[in-house]
Amino acid sequence: MTTDPLQRLIAIEEIKALKARYFRCVDTKDWAGLETVFAPDIVFDRTYSRSTRDPWTGDWSPPPPSPPWLVHGREAVMAMVRAAIEHLRTVHHGHMPEIDVIDESHATGIWAMSDELRAPDGTLLLAGRGHYHETYIRLADGWAIASSGIHRLEILRGPDPAATKGEQ
What we know:
Residues 7-147 form the SnoaL-like domain. It comes from Sphingomonas chungangi. It holds the Pfam family SnoaL_4. This protein is an alpha+beta fold. The protein has three helices and eight strands; from the N terminus they run H-H-E-E-E-E-H-E-E-E-E. The chain has a single domain (5-164), classed as Nuclear Transport Factor 2, Chain: A, CATH 3.10.450.50. It has helices spanning 5-28, 31-35, 74-85, and strands spanning 38-45, 52-53, 60-61, 70-72, 89-103, 106-118, 124-139, 142-157. The protein has a six-stranded mixed β-sheet with strand order 4-1-8-7-6-5, with helices on one face. Strands 2-3 form a two-stranded antiparallel sheet. The longest helix is centred in the first third of the chain and has 24 residues, at 5-28. The model has no long low-confidence stretch (mean pLDDT 92).
């Protein structure tokens, strides 16, 4: 961890702003803005995005895919996000960040999250709650998301579960 408390706090606030920009750009379909939040070599882990974990047994339902479902690189992540939500109304909220600044260029974070995905007519397709687990890297122009993955605690599916096949 960086030893300068002021630099640590500045990094935390910059990472909070980065994640806020992520949520806003996803929901407003600002693809150019969204692209700027990701490191060029980002890894997006979708392995657990369609499953929930029982907190008492540790079991996943349904079981996550094997091998892990990883999307590598900014271009591939952008294509995945667009394919999943471009034609859906979405609302993503991030809460209670736990950010650990490792050094001047690296940090980790866990964000409580909730999201809703709706068809263009407003029909609820999916509502989820859980946590984003992320790593961050400081690039020449600021912090970027280096890795991200969702671990869901709850998934509520609307009337057409097939419509959420691309959820992110």
